[in-house]
Design a protein that fits this description.
Blueprint lengths: L1 H38 L9 H27 L2 H10 L6 H26 L1 H10 L2 H45 L4 H15 L2 H5 L12 H22 L17 E2 L2 E2 L19
Antiparallel strand pairs: 1-2
Amino acid sequence: MARMASIRMGGGHRRTTGALFVGGAVAFGAAASVLSSTFNWPDILREPASVVLPAFDSGGTSLVWTWFATAWTYGLLVVPILLLPAVLGRREDPALRVATFVGAASVLLSLIGFLRWVFVVPPLASSYVGGDATTQAAADAAWTAQHQFGGALLGEHLGQLLAIGWSITLSVIILRSRILPRWLGATGLAASALYLLNQGDVLATAVPGFPVWDLAGLLGSTGWGLWVAALGITLLMRPVRAPNSAPGSAQSAPTVNGADAPPGSTPTPPRPAATGLRS
């Protein structure tokens, strides 16, 4: 009974983690699509304050709530990231433990980048639109400072790099241990490498002339998000495996084909139990 309860609990955690990966990726994609259609995101991020702040102010309260939804749908990913080591049965894996903290930190940094549009940008936009030339110059300077620090540095540079570090480490673990299908590890490495190319656009905000591939942001973020969704779907579809017998437990009487062995007979050796989740 205890073993069956453990199996059911493990299956529940696996399904919850998978559903959160899928739900977070899909919900964030939907919110980001609305943001793109209503605010020209992310292209508008590289525009000056004279373009961004009036456009933000004209978006009104609905645009603020769109940013709020975008932030917290992405924030949902911190929960399955933290649950994943236990679901995979690798809580003691040092590489995965470090990667888990890195992944959780990446979500936090990205949240800072997103939520500044809810708590920092609105008063700047209002001051810029309604102020005189001096006020506009001050709002412009404040916008540039918070945009480079909260957006380019924390959200786009550190947030993305740590997210890529998490996905690369997890992909390597998948490929080496086969605890999940190998194709998931291979595609995770490919999506992470493509997403990494977006750093050219981020670095160009501080280093003029730094090489930029315009499609890296769109293709990289989309590919990475699809990979996260694929990770969740894989967790949802994998069967629950019974845990192995504890080592050193008492041995039962030898059997032959499931029945008690008669004296002098040779017991049939048991088949080795499968370890972990295998593809």
